[in-house]
Amino acid sequence: MSEKKYETPLLDELEKGPWPSFIREIKQEAERPMVRDLLGVLERSYEEHIGHWKHGGLVGVMGYGGGVIGRYSDLPEEFPDVSEFHTFRVNQPAGWFYTSGALRDLCDIWDKHGSGLTNMHGSTGDIVFLGGKTTSIEPVFADLTEKGWDLGGSGSDMRTPSCCAGPARCEWANYDTLNACHEITQAYQDELHRPAFPYKFKLKFAGCPNDCVASVARADMSIIGTWKDEIQIDQEQVRAYAARGMDIEREIVELCPCDCISWDGQAMEIADGECVKCMHCINHMPKALRPGKERGAAILIGAKAPIVGGALLSSVFVPFLEMTPPYSDLRELIEAIWDFWGEHGKNRERVGEFIQRVGLGKFLEQIGLDPVPEMIAHPRSNPYIFFDDEIVAGAEA
Amino acid sequence: MSEKKYETPLLDELEKGPWPSFIREIKQEAERPMVRDLLGVLERSYEEHIGHWKHGGLVGVMGYGGGVIGRYSDLPEEFPDVSEFHTFRVNQPAGWFYTSGALRDLCDIWDKHGSGLTNMHGSTGDIVFLGGKTTSIEPVFADLTEKGWDLGGSGSDMRTPSCCAGPARCEWANYDTLNACHEITQAYQDELHRPAFPYKFKLKFAGCPNDCVASVARADMSIIGTWKDEIQIDQEQVRAYAARGMDIEREIVELCPCDCISWDGQAMEIADGECVKCMHCINHMPKALRPGKERGAAILIGAKAPIVGGALLSSVFVPFLEMTPPYSDLRELIEAIWDFWGEHGKNRERVGEFIQRVGLGKFLEQIGLDPVPEMIAHPRSNPYIFFDDEIVAGAEA
Amino acid sequence: MAVAGRKTDIGPPHYENFLPPVIKRNYGKWAYHEIPEPGVLVHVSESGEKLFTVRAGTPRILSIKTIRTFADLADKYADGYLRFTSRNNVEFLLSDEGKVFPLKTELGTLGYPVGGTGNAISAIVHTQGWVHCHSAASDASGVVKSLMDALYPRFTSMDLPAKLRVAFACCLNMCGAVHCSDIAVLGVHTRPPRIDHSELPKICEVPTLISSCPTGAIRPTTVDGKPSVEVEDGQCMYCGNCYTVCPAMKINNPKTDGISIWVGGKVSNARHEPMFSKLAIPFLPNNPPRWTEVVDAVVNIVDVYAKHARKHERMGEWIERIGWPRFFKLTGIPFTKYHIDDFTHAGETFRRSVHLKS
Amino acid sequence: MAVAGRKTDIGPPHYENFLPPVIKRNYGKWAYHEIPEPGVLVHVSESGEKLFTVRAGTPRILSIKTIRTFADLADKYADGYLRFTSRNNVEFLLSDEGKVFPLKTELGTLGYPVGGTGNAISAIVHTQGWVHCHSAASDASGVVKSLMDALYPRFTSMDLPAKLRVAFACCLNMCGAVHCSDIAVLGVHTRPPRIDHSELPKICEVPTLISSCPTGAIRPTTVDGKPSVEVEDGQCMYCGNCYTVCPAMKINNPKTDGISIWVGGKVSNARHEPMFSKLAIPFLPNNPPRWTEVVDAVVNIVDVYAKHARKHERMGEWIERIGWPRFFKLTGIPFTKYHIDDFTHAGETFRRSVHLKS
Ligand code: SRM
Ligand code: SRM
Ligand code: SRM
Ligand code: SRM
Ligand code: SF4
Ligand code: SF4
Ligand code: SF4
Ligand code: SF4
Ligand code: SF4
Ligand code: SF4
Ligand code: SF4
Ligand code: SF4
């Protein structure tokens, strides 16, 4: 354990300015040698314009394949206390709700075993414990489970699902995002902890098309709340918005992507059959407009970052699914996808890439879903059609 | 020469109905054995649901590589008079304008040497003489040139350019399409007649963005007239349209893709800076609106049918070019493209595919054009950027 | 290079030789046009002079007899001046308004319909088919004739919401603008080529053949000791490009060739940018001489469009507004897996949002 | 499978344990919300009950000391209830309106800015950078801190035309939603990996390595008798994926790593469908500790957007309306060949119409 303390003139610059400083956070834990070395190596990176971390052998909890990311310094002689600097992904509670007590439990554990530094939260949604030694892995895990916490995902497994505040703190939730997220997480603990897929599989639950968890961009399966029937209108409140000075014509009517709202100064009418449930009108008149009553979710699949085949947004898989516990329909879908992709997906091939390789049509056949035009922006313009025998069977007879 | 006459009960069905019948046309020439055999073999196709033509050895005019498409029957024993049934592509006059005398000249030639059947016109724009024997090729050519006609393109050459009626019969021509088409055709007679390119290269000239020759879909180079300054408005005529019952708000203002027209019942205003020159407003109020005065053309490149890499529409290459004879700027561009594509294009690779393979950025560098944002629908979202050394040169120093 | 002593490379005759005097006088000076009735255009010059155009449909395959008839009509009514359009209609160019009606009448008598202007279905741009091409999955002229017989009233009137451009091509080479038409009718092969292994080595180069295949389905092999190729059936999408470069790759198949229908393309820039046509019906049987299934399908799409689209809305603009799900619902066309693209850019055609109508 | 005798696979604690009573009572019954001032939300239930949320910015890297501070604040003002947002802000959940102002004041004193609601720039979603990741082309937290210092007034006010979401990722793996952000700041490598041929055979599988390369730039070779690989420089676009699967492919380069800026993405379905971010600036130097060039570039784009966009127009919607040429003109950013895509779907990004503004 080194007793060095480093000069960090470059990092110190980042303590200035109005936005809260991560350097101040790191320095707050600098009584720990590990954190002192972190400051040292980070200052070095700032001097040299290069990171000093590397991959290494797999580290993890006994019986799990995921949840800990192994990280090693490439300057272990100089910075021995960060020669091992792994992160733990701790599965956050649905919706990131905490009590002060729960947070203190987590702090106590990390105080005892690690750097004292965290990410609240990681981009996937986990609580991230930032920087622990290999020897601390089992103790951290024991203390976590003791207090009722468990690890999240990493590697080629189901990744920690996450969800928006939903019905807990939002008037627009079209289904219970927290419950669905929690139940799915619990249902697939094995898939979460023991990587057995071709690659990672992420699920995110958003209560409405505003998609406050960016599921359409970041989840292999995006479960996005929506409704089927009419937007609920409170005409009195509409008039109240107008009275308070809202230019309903300009701000609402003209910005509706479907051109399906009309407003005559007295009443607002929505041609619900044309509405694509974009949320714009509701977003800006929350007192007057609300989603319909026949609620559920659209299931989309396939989002991912660019590597290898290019970034993808999720695409419509089931236009509307009722979302009531125990979510049997959803689970059936998930399992059917995992089966087919699990068997035929290539190593490091996300499900979105897989679908593009085998063809959505064929994928649907395997999953047992009928193709519907809601799945596409438009039918193919490309005439390279792979015809099955049966399509011309009549003609051939 | 066979004397057979065939029963054609299936084809006869196509003499019925109000639309003029191609079967009647064919039968009109059926005193010729060749045409009788054509009817025979076509009836056979109708019975069997399959064509009976095949490619064969190259045929053509001495000194030319293009202009004649060799075609042979695959049933030469049964239909000897169409065992050879080649087509001639005769270069149409710009804009497809004729006098009765010119047409009679053509008829006389084809009467003497061929089937008496034509296409007025082929999809590329040529006058097509449909069905001649190999021995007729030189005589047809001699008679054609004697009367001032020449062959069009085929194979990997510049294909016969074509153009819309333009200033001859349209008020919206932003440049002289007929003149440009004629001059370019004449300038590149060698490239038209002697295939030396990687693949075909088509040019089409449209006088305005209505693109009445479908150049954006069918030409390796689409020269589409447009303007830079303000749409010319005759307010009196605008009011006259309104008075005659046109709902200017609904039919014009609301359909402008840029939302840049306003109309207060008295005067129409156009925010020309926002106008994308789509032509809609002008199309429907020809008496009141006219393109601006600063006229020229946008040059687009790369359209083609699907084979091999997928269909392409042309894309913007030069957003605005003045189009005055002798079209030196245009010719410089054309020649630069031919040089680069000619040297580096693969066999049967259209210029649009070539650009996608080498990258538009690199293509522009070679041609000597600066990239401008008008060339793209949007900048790349794909982060796989090939950086040149110089971009980071400063940082690297 | 031009051959010495021969008259070559003279190019087409100069268009000025063929322009009527009224055009020469008003070249580039047209002020506006009107369409007084279907098939008749009046272009008015800044000088006040007028040019009358009478447009008539033709079967595109024209015998020289018919061309001479047109020449005679031109002499009789139009001082000998006429032209053809980019959609193969014939146009007589009259300076005398009084001759418009007589010309129309005579054209009618001869069986050439006057129309195709304004918000109409103009002539169908098409290709060679069994009349002349080697890779045709269907006849061209016969399908087109059958279609135009059924669409005739749409040619001679102008009561559609907008122009409706129909195109036909007999194979995936798509000679024409099938890929950008309001309605495109496209001949398709649906089975891999049958290979004539004895002919192949004699007439084809194997490397060229292999590289002709867009999906890489063709592989080299040896048959009876001679170099040939084999086709990985599952990878072939029957484009016929191999047949174009090598006649031993027999792509035509009387039982399984047929016709597909595509909708919503356009090339003009009016309002909406140009668009590709999208698949509406993947396969209909080849049913000569009248192709009833194809005709019925097209007429149905036209009728639904005519009924539902707003004024000035082209097919593709209409569908974009109502959405593809409703297009399939209104037309009653079944949506199948074939409608979902599965080639290189397939992913770009998926719906990557929850903008969904109930 | 779970190991016997160990406590495993218990999953996260149930969220209900952490919900304040006011939420439990009104779960799923919220009627509407208001944003009385930046950083404060009031959710009103059908029952009339109210929930007050105070949102504050954090550096995301939190020490347990700070977390304890948050816990203390929660106890003091919010009966111990708090949450974090999907953009890493902390939110205190109050049932007592009277405690909103005191909490805000104390947060201010402690240096945690209250804001990020409504038409603001909320916290920047970001990644690990030099603090923890191996393939980072830049630090993450340092760039983000520098940016947020400059954008601070946009966090604490709500006077932008719409929400403006900024994201940062330190390499092309894009941990986050960089590819769909109003403004995305992305670390980029710009040189092919340097290969450590002695290490490679020991730690990497050559076939896996070869297949990791999106452009097929990696080829097998032998170096000093041992299997290794070589990189075809002209084909490498520096994504670093080979480095992720094989640490011997050194992608980090202190001289040539840098930062690119992307604009106009979004994920919500409000009005416009979700969109990818598009390249605005291909390369800016890595200039720690304050990344001045990057900060200036982002501030410029924000300012131009703030000045020109219409109410409710997200960055991408604004640019779509005015067109990319004008975006480059207004921001003064030079347009280069790098802006033109040249990968698989490049052609889809070309302008295939003459819809052009002068
Ligand atoms: C910690 C975290 C970033 C952060 O600072 O928050 C992270 C960090 C890493 N990501 Fe990530 N990713 C994190 C969220 C994401 C997200 C966002 C999300 O999940 O919502 C994405 C984009 C969405 C997606 O999955 O496509 C993401 C896309 C990637 C990729 C690209 C995957 C692809 O298919 O393109 C890789 C590369 C890989 O898997 O080899 C990657 C790989 C990595 C690795 C494991 C790289 C490596 O091999 O070392 C990083 C470990 C860094 C470390 O030191 O711990 N990370 N990664 C996030 C996880 C924390 C958590 O569990 O909450
Ligand atoms: C005659 C004509 C169709 C017609 O009935 O009008 C035609 C006929 C043929 N086309 Fe075409 N193309 C004709 C216009 C077109 C057009 C439209 C145009 O030029 O505006 C296209 C689409 C635009 C384009 O060029 O991409 C077109 C795209 C093709 C292709 C696909 C090229 C591609 O890059 O995808 C082929 C395939 C080939 O080149 O091998 C092709 C090949 C052929 C061949 C040569 C096939 C063959 O190898 O036999 C056909 C000869 C048929 C024959 O019996 O004469 N033809 N071809 C048209 C030429 C007449 C003329 O000169 O006026
Ligand atoms: C004669 C012809 C040009 C030629 O040189 O041959 C021509 C002539 C005229 N076109 Fe065209 N167009 C001609 C083919 C086209 C084509 C190409 C095609 O059909 O393959 C297009 C593009 C079609 C597409 O987008 O798919 C075309 C798109 C237009 C448009 C745009 C319509 C739209 O809303 O998209 C206009 C404007 C209008 O009519 O409102 C137009 C307008 C006109 C005007 C009014 C121009 C004028 O002032 O003279 C001419 C009479 C139109 C009419 O028939 O109603 N012309 N026009 C072509 C007649 C073809 C035919 O026989 O039917
Ligand atoms: C707390 C949070 C959800 C959570 O579970 O953590 C949340 C909460 C709310 N969002 Fe959100 N959104 C949250 C992340 C997002 C995201 C995801 C992201 O930023 O990565 C998006 C998608 C952003 C995008 O499109 O790129 C998002 C797009 C929206 C929208 C759509 C805005 C638009 O016009 O595009 C609304 C509606 C609005 O504000 O008009 C919205 C509205 C809301 C409302 C008003 C919902 C409600 O009634 O409670 C909440 C307060 C909004 C506010 O801050 O002004 N929320 N919201 C997230 C706060 C993040 C933060 O700390 O800043
Ligand atoms: S996604 Fe919808 S339901 Fe969920 S928090 Fe955002 S606005 Fe509310
Ligand atoms: S939700 Fe969107 S599409 Fe539906 S009416 Fe409101 S603004 Fe229009
Ligand atoms: S393209 Fe334009 S200029 Fe040419 S004929 Fe058509 S409308 Fe007239
Ligand atoms: S030409 Fe098109 S874009 Fe321009 S003002 Fe007219 S309708 Fe609008
Ligand atoms: S579309 Fe195909 S079959 Fe028809 S003429 Fe063109 S190449 Fe021949
Ligand atoms: S038909 Fe097309 S896809 Fe099939 S083998 Fe021939 S070239 Fe390849
Ligand atoms: S973006 Fe790249 S460098 Fe940054 S944390 Fe993710 S994998 Fe690591
Ligand atoms: S950095 Fe990317 S493109 Fe370059 S060799 Fe490695 S994997 Fe291939």
Whole-number count of domains of chain A: 3
Terminal residue distance of chain C: 66 Å
> What is the beta-strand fraction of chain A?
15-25%
- Secondary-structure-based class of chain C equals alpha+beta
> Percentage of helical residues of chain A?
25-40%
Sheet with the most strands: spatial strand order of chain C: 1-2-3-6-5
Continuous helix count of chain C: 10
Description:
The complex is a heterotetramer, with two copies of chain A (397 residues) and two copies of chain C (358 residues). By secondary structure, chain A is of the alpha+beta class. Helix content of chain A is 33%, strand content 15%. Chain A has three domains: 138 residues, Alpha-Beta Plaits (2-Layer Sandwich), CATH 3.30.70; 146 residues, Sulfite Reductase Hemoprotein, domain 1 (2-Layer Sandwich), CATH 3.30.413.10; 59 residues, Alpha-Beta Plaits. The termini of chain A are far apart. The mean pLDDT of chain A is 96. Helices cover 27% and strands 20% of the residues of chain C. Chain C contains ten helices and 14 strands. Chain C has a five-stranded antiparallel sheet. The mean pLDDT of chain C is 96. Classes of the chains: A alpha+beta (397), C alpha+beta (358). The interface between A and D is large, with 123 and 118 residues. Strand 6 of chain B pairs antiparallel with strand 4 of chain C. The structure holds siroheme (4 copies) and iron/sulfur cluster (8 copies). One siroheme sits at the interface of chains B and C.
Report a brief summary of the structure.
The complex is a heterotetramer, with 2 copies of chain A (397 residues) and 2 copies of chain C (358 residues). By secondary structure, chain A is an alpha+beta fold.
